[in-house]
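Ticket reopened. Same input as before:
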Amino acid sequence: MKVKASRAGWWGYVFISPWIIGFLCFVAGPMIASLILSFTDFNLVDARYVGLENFQKILGSDEKFWKALSNTLLYTLLAVPLGLTGSLLLAVLLNQNLKLKGVWRACFYIPTLVPAAAASFLWLYMFNEYQGLINKTLLMMGADAKNLPKWFNSTVLAMPTMVMMSLWGIGGARMIIFLAGLQNIPQALYEAASIDGASRWRQFWHVTMPMLSPVIFFNLILGCVGAFQLFTQAFLISPEGEPNNAMLFYAVYIFRQAFQLFHAGYASALAWTLFIILAVITAIQFFFARYWVHYEGDVK
Amino acid sequence: VARFIGIFTLILLAIAPFVAYNVIHTADARDGKVHLTYMAWGNPEQQDTDDAVLKAFEESHPNIKIDFIVAPSSDYPQKIQIMMASGVAPDVFKLDLFYLPKYFPAGYFMPLEDFAKKDSTFSFDDFYPMTKEELTYNGKILGLNTLFGGRIVYYNKKLFKEAGLPDPYEQFQRGEWTYDAFANAARKLTIYENGMAKQFGVKFDFYDMWWVVWGYGGDITDKNHHVYIDDPASIAGMKWYADLLHKDHVMPRPGEDAAGIFSFESGRLGMLVDWQGASPRLRRKINNMFDWDIVPVPRGPAGHYSLMKGNGLIMSSKTRHPAESWEFLKFLNSPETEMAYCGPALRRAIPTRIVEDNPKPGRIDKTKYLSDKWTKNPLNPKSSESPNPPPPPRNTGTFLAIHDTAHRLPVTELWQDWQPDYRNWFGRLNRNEITTEQFCRGLAKYLRDLLGKPKGDPLVTPGKPASNAPAGVRQ
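Engineering reply: fixed in the latest deploy. New output:
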């Protein structure tokens, strides 16, 4: 029996060996290499050991690191809650007994099939100060032509514009996960609440939200990680971080250091700093999760 | 048995990459030919010429096969630098000169003097000195220059006629093509209706700030990392530019040119300042919708300066076939190939080889080069089409004229480090967030902090020519 189990285990390793080799060679290997490189001054030509110098520079004198970090943090603080709320509301809406429910669900999902690059250019044009559909609409509504918002070209409005653009994706995978979570809530709970005289709002707040909290938590973690790693849209809309570094995102800054300035050692240190920041944020989220995330069968 | 199969599978998977590598690198043995890899970025308008050049080389060198790798220009710098760092650089590759100083110390590039000395068919004396100097570091010539070209002014002849303006090339020939004439034309070519721009006079790029300040006797920085952008002459040059943008508003501001509605090919732009390499693209896109031509950038109050640069054709120091790579490099840069790219049919660039009347072998025939008639060139399949009348640009005198006034960029190992911030400062000026003075002083402080040099010597003679360079060529 034991021999059989051992053989089965071997076959298991054989079948997953492509993945293990791929993981070791293309994920774990580069990660370890980048950790080592983060302690060097490596420009793809020479690597010189510099100890903690890169990290000292990041936390001390690199103004752009703080700018990129604060921009990314602001984006996360705005885009993630808004996106989660939007996806949740959309999922609740599409979970109702509507006619043509399948068609509505497809309609809301379709925009997320547009590639990020194409969507970025579309929004760039929509928000154009002079030719964009949004400002043209504002003009038609009687706005002053000389004081139209500059959207991506304004230091103040660039970030809110980016957040507005991110809401384009509220009907995507996140909404599908919410929808699946909503459908897993036992109908009996709503019936019981209804018999006790709970209004729809009360049912939503005291049944839907607690039962959905693990899904919300899951989407929150993924949303924060995704927001911190935002690259494609940010790079396409403002590769230089303009205006005045108001659109300089952390991942774009890592890319700039690694592949435009070829400071690969410094970029590795930036990447590991981001890893630590994300780990801390995730740990904090897990710590506070015990106060609001409800798992069925939990004993508190 | 199962354990054996499992271990065997693991070993197979582990050695697969090495087998693949070996298969790729034994291509030479398969057909008995020497295989050279050549990497360059793509350009749709010159694809036919690229293909014809490679085919002609393989026909004339039957023992060599070229494996051509085309990479998108946007990813090219990253790709080639990672290949060089990984020790798998192509035998021959194209590289923008911006990247040479930084990677010269790593020894990625094969110096070419020894090849030239042993080759009686080749002489560096056949090249314009500036094209060699661009690719020379620590006294070593690291590549042959190609697709050499400068910033020139493309102008819409139809719009000039409608505005009642004189032809700029005729003005240039009379010596009247000055900053004032240029600005005057830009103002007259700009049309507003109900406060909205319908047509703009001109469009610049951040590269153009170099010739703009040179023309006023100023500069941005030099190869010794001295900074001059806050010099009064440089400030005057930048003010001329900023006034065109903000005071006269004769060029689109950031965001105003969404989706290229004021692109040159749209017919709603009077003048475009761009690299000479834009010619084939504009010819294809405009497709005879209107007539256009070219003229050098205007003469500034302190003199006539234009900006030129080329691309390096580099031989990898790791090549296993240096002799064959040298043959290929020579072919890519031969007078015939240069005429295919630079001659009447493509007018893509300016020859790096000296252009003269009755040329000796290795140089370019001036009459053929400046001809506006498409002569048949086997290296340019489209040249036999010979349309009548020939398509623009026809002011071919522009090419050699800008050669006479050329400056090159002071590219050093720190060039890449300050370009993103330079563009950021430039963006702030374009958005009218800062004044010209603030731009010049702020950028100067930033550059001095980064480049670590104090204010340079007073800028008495901008563009002082070196003794061995053509007139006007800055060192």
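Residues 2-37 of chain A form the longest helix (36 residues). Residues 2 and 127 of chain A are 66 Å apart (CA to CA). Please confirm and we'll close it.
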